[in-house]
Structures are given as structure tokens and as C-alpha cells.
Design brief:
The structure is a single chain. The protein has eleven helices and four strands. It is mainly alpha-helical and 310 residues long. It has a domain of 165 residues: Creatininase (Rossmann fold). The chain has a four-stranded parallel beta sheet with strand order 2-1-3-4. Strand 1, helix 3 and strand 2 form a beta-alpha-beta unit. The chain is globular.
Length: 310
């Protein structure tokens, strides 16, 4: 009798395995996502309605689709913004809503694959998205800008929402800054910005499968002489130099400033450092530091202005 039971169990197990294999073979072989809490594209309508009983906050990542040198994906900024927003929303309830993959990136257009939108287009799309969310009962909007070229657009968009709608908006990057934990660092001696060691480290932590570090190369930077002379003061943190440098650096080729990415960097990276220096550990530390600061700001806002019940 025991032998018969064992055989029946084995047959059942085999049948389940065959069924599972067939089911897997019938679904998309490229699908690899798993459902993430509070991430709108993954949620059902009842889940959104349930979240609205706990929070009226929305995190809107604002990224870009642009070249990131030889080793990072074109979607680095968009993906970075979305993934950090997801991490924040696991620690404190907020709806994460990705609106656009694209941003304002005219100075990267010399490299294939980069796509840019006008500031007016970006504002219009996000503003209308916010109007939709307001109709459903969401009230507070936190813009997580993941691309430097969007900074002015995001600040203007935040002001538009505050001035023209019943919504309340903030730039989450600026809002989280006072909550950032202190980090003892040696003074910078080399420029390290777009697609450099810091950004490569964060991408290795957030989306490791999308980094091809074996192809990374140290960029040769060429910039106008007057900007080159500013670099030491820029690295030293001189606020006036920083403002002037960024007002002219990384601008579209059509402006004639000679500071587009194609004109200033051999690889597309705006960094003098070797990207091979990047590490998952550095990426984890930088990401965790920002996520923790963002959560602290959001919790403080919730404390100062409790959600109005529907």
C-alpha cells in the first residue's frame, strides 16, 4: 500500500512539473518584473483606492533618455529616478507614478539614441498628469528629478502646480537635502559628473544587469579654456564658479558655446575619473543616504499636515 501511495505522489509531482513547464513556455520569455508595492503601473484599481485611504502623496520621477558613455544604459536617469522612488515608497506610503521616459537633453544629441523634449512639452505632460491625479483625491506631489537638465523645468512645474491648482508640490531633491546624513569626504580633485564613478556606482547598485563595466573607458575632456581654468574652484565648491560654469557648460551645439557633450568628451562621460573605480558599495551608500533623507522629509510633512480624510 505504501509503495502505491509513493508512486501516486510521484506521478502527481511529475504532472505538476509538466503543467508548470507548459505554463511557463506559454508566457512571455522576456518577462522578469515582480510586483512592487505602491508602484502605479503594477497596481489594480482597488489597490489604488485602498492607498488613497492612507496617503494623498505622489512621487513623480523625472528622468531622461540620453547617452551615458560606453557602459551605462540610455535610460540611466529615468530608471534611477523610478527605482529610487520605489525604494522610498516601501518605507513610507506614497504612490509612485512614472510619466515620461524622456527629459530635456539637447546637449547630448550629438550621440546616437539620445532623445530630447522641449521644456514646455515636459511641463504640459506632467501638469496634465497631476490634474488627473487631483481628480482622484491625491493632493501632494513630490518631484524626484533624476537628470540635471530638467532642474529649471521641474522648479517651474512645481510652482505652476502650487499657483494654479489645489495641489501642493515640492522638489523632493531640494526638500530632502537638509535631512542628508553627513559624510566625511576628501576634497574632490577630479571632475566626476555625467556617467562618472558616482553615477556608475549608483547604477551598479540599482540596476546591475544593465551596466557593462568591461566597456568603460576614461574620457578625454576638452572644454573652452576659460571653463577649464574654473575647474579647480568648481571642485573646491565655489558657489559663484559653480553657477557660472553650469550656465555655460553642457549646452546644445546650436548655441555655439562649444560645450555640447560631443564637443567636450570623447566617450560621452563628463568625468576625468576611470569608471572602473565604481563599486556597488558606493552606489548602495549614495542611494541609501538619499532614500533615508527623502523618507524623513515625507514623514515630517505628514506630521506637519496630516492627510485630509475623503
Amino acid at each position: 500500500m505504501k509503495t502505491v501511495v509513493v508512486v501516486l505522489l510521484a506521478v502527481q509531482a511529475l504532472a505538476l512539473t509538466v503543467c508548470s513547464t507548459r505554463a511557463a513556455a506559454q508566457t512571455n520569455p522576456l518577462w522578469s518584473e515582480r510586483k512592487v508595492k505602491n508602484y502605479l503601473p503594477h497596481m489594480t484599481r482597488p489597490e489604488v483606492e485602498d492607498l488613497l485611504t492612507r496617503t494623498d502623496m505622489v512621487i513623480l520621477p523625472v528622468g531622461a533618455l540620453e547617452q551615458h558613455a560606453l557602459h551605462l544604459p540610455m535610460g540611466t536617469d529615468f530608471i534611477s529616478g523610478v527605482e529610487r522612488a520605489k525604494l522610498i515608497a516601501q518605507e513610507t506610503d506614497a504612490l509612485v507614478v512614472p510619466i515620461l521616459t524622456l527629459g530635456q537633453s539637447p546637449y547630448h544629441m550629438g550621440f546616437a539614441g539620445s532623445i530630447t523634449l522641449r521644456s514646455e512639452t515636459i511641463q504640459a505632460v506632467y501638469f496634465e498628469a497631476v490634474e488627473s491625479l487631483l481628480r482622484h483625491g491625491f493632493k501632494r506631489f513630490l518631484f524626484l528629478n533624476a537628470h540635471g537638465g530638467n532642474r529649471a523645468t521641474v522648479d517651474f512645474l512645481v510652482d505652476r502646480i502650487n499657483q494654479e491648482t489645489a495641489g501642493i508640490a515640492v522638489n523632493l531633491g531640494s526638500a530632502a537635502t537638509p535631512f542628508l546624513s553627513r559624510v566625511e569626504q576628501a576634497p574632490a580633485t577630479m571632475l566626476d559628473r555625467h556617467a562618472g564613478v558616482s553615477e556608475t556606482s549608483r547604477t551598479m547598485y540599482l540596476t546591475p544587469d544593465l551596466v557593462d563595466l568591461a566597456t568603460a573607458q576614461t574620457a578625454t575632456l576638452t572644454m573652452p579654456d576659460h571653463l577649464q581654468r574654473m575647474v579647480p574652484d568648481l571642485l573646491a565648491g565655489d558657489p559663484t564658479v559653480s553657477r557660472i560654469f553650469l550656465a555655460e557648460g553642457l549646452k546644445a551645439e546650436e548655441t555655439g558655446k562649444g560645450t555640447s557633450a560631443r564637443e567636450m568628451t570623447s566617450t560621452g562621460a563628463w568625468s576625468e575619473r576611470d569608471p572602473q573605480e565604481a563599486s556597488v558599495e558606493q552606489g548602495r551608500a549614495e542611494t541609501t543616504r538619499f532614500v533615508d533623507a527623502a523618507v524623513q522629509f515625507i514623514e515630517r510633512w505628514k506630521e506637519l499636515r496630516p492627510m485630509e480624510r475623503q
